[in-house]
Amino acid sequence: MRVLGIETSCDECGVGIVDDGGRVLANVIASQVELHARYGGVVPEVASRQHLRTILPAVEEALAQADTTWREIDLIAVTAGPGLVGSLLVGVNAAKALAYARDLPLLGVHHLEGHVYANWLDQALGGEPPPRFPCVALIVSGGHTDLVLMEDHGRYRRLGRTRDDAAGEAFDKVARLLGLGFPGGPAIQRVAEGVQQPAVSLPRAWLQGTADFSFSGLKTAVLRLLEAPDAPPAEQVAAAFQESVVDVLVSKTLVAAEAHGAAEVLLAGGVAANSLLRRVMRERSPVPVRVPPPKLCTDNGTMIAGAAFYRWQAGDRSDLSLDAQPGMKFAS
Ligand code: KG4
Ligand code: ZN
Predict the structure, then answer these.
(1) Taking the chain (332 residues) in consecutive chunks of 10 residues, what is each chunk's mean pLDDT?
(2) How far apart are alpha carbons 258 and 265 in whole angstroms?
(3) Nearest ligand to the C-alpha of residue 292?
(4) Residue 71: exposed, middle, or buried by beta-carbon count in 10 A (0-12, 13-18, 19+)?
(5) Distance, CA 141 to ligand 1 centroid (Å)?
(6) I need a surface site. Which of 108, 230, 293, 325 has the fewest CB within 10 A?
(7) This prediction's pTM
């Protein structure tokens, strides 16, 4: 089954084509990073207007990259939510128009389920068999930090979530405090790479007895540190911040994995592109750790096409009444 997936929930306009939930034929991303960088963050109106310009050329480019025609596409999938409403609307309406014009079925997908299913794409598997259930998935993006028990395809139970900022949001805010620009995650990773062992230590919010997270106190601690007369250099603060976030994410994920007898740990979302998180999770986990290649961790259309295949197998269908759902719920 050949699925064309569209992702426009935030600032990346992604179109992917995937066979049977795994074989990636095309992954086109029209990035808006440069457009938003001058504002220091994503400007919703600018994002949706840019999606309007790039969505159809991205679809055409994906078809060309996959060397496929509309006749060979079996399903159009699109991120229905959550996300910025103006951005979601462009993707959802493009998907609906294409499904109508090409007489193809349509399926709305949850953005976070897409991130999780990036772990089933061939480029993530690297020749290994697909993940075994039950697994514990750490979904860390700009808008979410969720720890989820996945018992089977499409069966999720949320174990914990952030109580304030998402991990990616914390990276972006701290990068701004450090004057490192947008997006913050890659910028912090880059400057922290030169630091062997940070000379300062930043606090960790453990929220003992829960699988929840909190990152707003850490952000405040960074601010206090920078306001001090003897403030350490930016790269020291960046490295200490990254170390603190990674320590908490890894420790709490592994406690949950053990408590629920997880066969594997899955990493998903933009922050899963972080090299320290990938390395420390692998070093400390007693069970196998799956993590997609960095370009499939950040927003893309292939993960939506991948997740849609499993949703379709389970009998899910959408129709032309599909609407953008900015607050769409996932696991509960
Ligand atoms: O999943 P994603 O592309 O979009 C959302 O769904 O939000 O995640 C974007 C987030 C941003 O906050 C960005 O700073 C963060 O992922 N990110 C990283 C890295 N690459 C992207 N955070 C830490 N290290 C990275 N290498
Ligand atoms: Zn995302």
Answers:
(1) 98 98 98 94 97 98 98 98 98 98 98 98 97 98 97 97 98 97 96 95 97 97 96 97 98 98 98 98 98 98 98 98 96 73
(2) 10
(3) 1
(4) exposed
(5) 5
(6) 230
(7) 0.97
